[in-house]
Design brief:
Length: about 160
Amino acid sequence: MIQRIQTIYLLAIVILSGITIFSPIADLINKVDNQIYLVDFKGISLIKPTGNIIESAIWGLTSVSAVVPIIALITVFSFKNRVKQIRLSVINMIFMICFYFFLVLYLWPACIRLHTDWHLRIVSVFPLVNLILSYLAIGAIGKDEKLVKSLDRLR
């Protein structure tokens, strides 16, 4: 299980997704009032004066971020069923794309309402890296499946 390259890819997805969940994703900066808002899994919170959570309704972004590492772990441990691994990896890729959909869905109205500019942090790139790693894992799983099928023909 560990000696296969797709396991390394999938474990990297788990690690990067875990970092994505617990790290701030974006900053919302209001240059007129000099207020900085932070977007993380808890919501949008004002940094400087109070630190209070302004909006906690970013459940879509948080839930998508939480589902990605769980599906990647399930994919690692279903190594005996390679077709299931491919399907789970494709589902995981869909969730990674949904991450960006929810990110825009929550940031755009918040920026308009708070009169801020948004600045993404490096953590917001991790789902894109996970998307690439998932694609590479699908390719490696497909190679394993071809190898097993070719060995079955020789018997």
